[in-house]
Design a protein that fits this description.
This protein has helices spanning about 15-20, 30-40, 55-60, 125, 135-150, 170-180, 200-210, 225-230, 240-255, 275-285, 310-320, 340-350; strands at about 70-75, 80-90, 95-100, 105-110, 110-115, 130, 160, 195-200, 215-220, 260-265, 290-295, 325. By secondary structure, the chain is of the alpha/beta class.
Length: about 350
Amino acid sequence: MMQEIPFIYDLRFPDLEILMKELGQPAFRADQVWTAVYKNLIGSADEITTLSKSLREKLADRVSFDALVPLRTIESRDKRTAKTLFRLQDGEFIEAVLMYYDTRRTLCISSQSGCGMGCTFCATGQMGLRRNLTSGEVVAQVLYYARLLAENDERVTNVVVMGMGEPFNNYENVMDALNRLNDPEGFGLGARRITLSTVGLIPAIRRFADEETQYNLAISLHTVDDELRSSMIPVNRKYPVSDLLNACRYYIKKTRRRVTFEYALIDGVNDSPADAEALAQRLRGMLCHVNLIPLNPTRGYGKHGSSADSVRAFSNVLETHHIPCSVRLRRGIEIQAGCGQLAAEFKTNP
């Protein structure tokens, strides 16, 4: 059963103004609540001490602050990655990951419970789609970690929508959530510190380009061979590589921003020098960056990440062709930090 009253995080500021008016309150009360939630990171109506006790009680009757129930958090041995499994109010599950870098505190958040894209190497894709998240359930993941970081006088510096789900299959809710997080009068996270990742839904990429926001775009590419990509990412049969790259060029032209291509290197599948050469030829002249990362293994996929030597040889080919690239460290393998792995395990062994 879905939530009977809305989450506070689902409300846009004008919605909050309407709510305050319905409660017989002056307009500035909406500012007080907005500030409490997004700047002071207050997690319940009872804690908003700028409101009277009676108003706090009325607010608690009209909106819920309990979008997520954290069930389990596991940390990597080096304490640089933490993953939390959340239960939603209807009993579905999502995950979010906090990654510590030198100065960055990056969150990887979910946009759906499960995913309908069916990517063979992805634990979330192996689960299938359960449902879209509301905008408030997306926002709540960020605020949950923001509160934890604030306990140590730290803050969220980057958000990537690369967790469970295909963000562009939940376009309105995801964009609504990001706009709220980006709001300088709210959470205030800079647009260029927010990245959306898609497997390549072309109409949504073009729509995203036309929005002309400053959010970053990442494409889960993984190969430029259509036959191989279709076997790994079924949506490629509808949106093949040539069309996808043309949509990326459209995005670049409209926004003047580069595209990041995510490339999971899989031993013996897409990691040969010939694969690297083909990728370089297709990306030639494009304003882009390639993120190379050895595949995080999942139980439902029998292949493994590429060796260090293969990764190095692949990146060398790209660099020879002046394709900007970086090799991303695999994070949290021992805590199953890949998308959907913890949720899948919990559903099997609660």
